[in-house]
Specification:
Blueprint: H1 2-18, H2 20-30, H3 36-39, H4 41-67
């Protein structure tokens, strides 16, 4: 009984809350009031996050390379 309620809550969380931006984009694109930029907004957000993480990774990698500790086990 409790496990069933947990899975129902997870399903409700995704369908009622977390997928709302995608539903908004689908409805907005269907009315053709938006263009290419708004329909791909989620992709652009992911790309910006990935670029920030990649820059941080490269900065940390350069720091360890400079210290000479990058390959120590």
């Amino acid at each position: 009984m409790i496990a069933s309620n947990i899975f129902r809550w997870i399903g409700s969380l995704f369908t009622d809350l977390l997928f709302l931006p995608f539903k908004w984009l689908r409805l907005d694109v269907a009315t053709e009031l938006s263009g290419w930029w708004t329909s791909n907004m989620v992709n652009w957000i992911f790309m910006v996050v990935l670029l920030v993480l990649f820059a941080y990774w490269m900065k940390e990698s350069a720091k360890f390379l400079k210290e000479g500790t990058e390959d120590r086990a």
